[in-house]
Amino acid sequence: MTSNVSHVFSRLWLCLGLLVVSFQGVAACEMAGEDGLAITAKVPVEAGQQRFSFVCDIDSPHILYFSDNFISFNQLYDKDMRKISALPGAFEAYPLDPSNKLFYLDLSSQVERFLTLNVSTLADYQRFSSVHTLTMSLFIGFCFALVLYVGMLGSSMRNYGFYSYSFYVFSAAIFFSLQEGLLNIIFPDISLFSNFKLILLFAGLTVFAAVRFLDQLLDFKVLLMGWQRHFLLGMANTALALSMLQLVLPYSGAALVNHTLSLITLITMTGTLSSCVYATYRKVHCSALVMTGIAVMVLTMLFRLVFVDTSEFMYRYGLVVGITLEAFIFAMATCRKVKKLDDDRVGAFKRASTDALCNLLNRSGWESMANTILSTYNKERGYLTLLFIDVDHFKEINDQYGHHAGDKVLQVIAKILKSRCREQDAVGRLGGDEFVVLSHCYSEGQSERLAARVEASLSDRDIRTDNYVIPVTASVGAYITQERCKDLTSLLDKADKIMYRVKAQKKDEAPAVS
Where is the signal peptide (predicted)? Predict the structure, then answer.
């Protein structure tokens, strides 16, 4: 009996369905003792060992092939009970000699299932096998490329959303590679890859990963009520637990777990799909892309059900094409979601590190950026330029013109500093009328020119407010060094002392008031 989990997956948008390979038989082969049952019909297989016999009326070499999922042993014999060697490939395949009419097939199935035996000419089988191998290889390769690409993005950005997506696509890719026998081509002698328990394990992992991925992507914590989200996550966790529990059970117990897991999968996927629809209605970020991916899967399944005779390739591999497109669309949604989260995080950092009055970095924001520049300077060397700026007679400006005019002066000075510095320079307001600039330059001349630009711009300036034109000057303490620096405190102290010397020199040079 075919896995119930596979049947559930084949009907749901996650497309973890069993690809039923149907190939029109070209030879007259019938099961012996089964009232002339055509060999291409689904044959019920019991759990355990059994023998099937069939008669083939063929006049040229043909190939018998079938999926070896859940089969731990099989062997084909001719009428004289001589073993027929299997051919390498994704399926169990045996050559049929036209000189033999009667064949015996011994099977040892792990669970009850239906088995479709297919017979075709050698040329038809080679064409089918090549197309199957190429299609599945491209699909698996595409999935793993997405897993690696998105996983590396997640590693660089330290965001769980990327890892959640990678785990989902990885689980789905492994499930399909096991279900479709792709690993049998590389490891023909390892029966583990057709094991019922292993396939069921990755079925449960995929259900779990899918729900966790959508929970992160669509923010179920905010979108749904608490009990609704906990119900979906609880069902997903139960699916994972059951898929792991069945590994230690006998096959009969694993088959019972399979029935339970099928029901849990159906409930979980229905709830998840409803949540996606609701998220789209509420215009949750990226929900439209998620619904597009779901729509692709629905259309793919409808194509297989309604347009059976339209395209043999799409009938066989429509689900693979569908999940490929879905994985790509979900990757786009994940990247957009994480970009939004990063933009929000950067925006929050900027708001927390920006001086509201002057639109420059505040003290904490400036120190954070300055430490980064200091670290780069110590590695690459060059010249470090620190400018400490203090507005001259700022208290008198506030007293004479008012605090509103004083705020306007600070805002204009902030604009001047930003215009005279580079984007990569750290420009900030430490507090009051004190400003600071830290720049990593690669020549002494570059450092000196920066200091000269700032000093010239602030040496004698008239600043226009709503009611006044205020003459403003500022003292600039410029500290330029190419020595290794350990901390900002000592740098600020040196620049601050230079600034006070400049301020004192201005007082000494000021003409005496008679």
Answer: 1-27
Q: What is the pTM of this model?
A: 0.66
Q: How many CA atoms lie within 13 A of 133 on its CB side?
A: 14
Q: Specify burial of residue 231 (Cβ count, 10 A radius: 0-12, 13-18, 19+).
A: middle
Q: Does domain 126-350 have CATH number 2.60.40?
A: no
Which stretches does DSSP call E strand in 301-447?
A: 383-391, 426-431, 434-441
Q: How confident is the model at residue 25, as a pLDDT? A: 36
DSSP type of residue 512? P
Torsion, Cα 38 44 46 52, to 10 degrees, reads 0
As a whole number of Å, the CA-based R_g of the chain is 36
β-partners of residue 50 are 107
35: region left, alpha or beta (phi > 0 left; psi from -120 to 50 alpha): left
3-state SS class at 486:
coil
| Largest Cα span, the chain | 131
Q: Which fold has domain 363-509?
A: Alpha-Beta Plaits (3.30.70)
* pLDDT, tens only, 282-304: 888 888 888 888 778 777 777 76
Pick the CATH number of 4-9+18-121 from 1.10.3210, 3.40.50, 2.40.160, 2.60.120: 2.60.120
Which residues is 361 bridged to in the sheet?
354, 428
Instruction: Compute the mean pLDDT over every residue in the chain, rounded to the nearest whole number.
Output: 83
CA distances from 480 to 438, 448, 509 (A): 10, 8, 25
Alpha-carbon span 58 to 121, nearest angstrom: 10
The region of weakest confidence among 281-290, 311-320, 406-415, 462-471 is 311-320
Element (H, E) at 92: strand 92-96
Q: Report the Cα 499 to chain-centroid distance in Å.
A: 52
> In the chain, what are the domain boundaries?
4-9+18-121, 126-350, 363-509
| Mean pLDDT, range 161-189, rounded to an integer | 85
Rounded to 10 degrees, the C-alpha dihedral 133/136/142/148 comes to -90
The CA-CA-CA angle for residues 147, 272, 338, to 5°, reads: 40
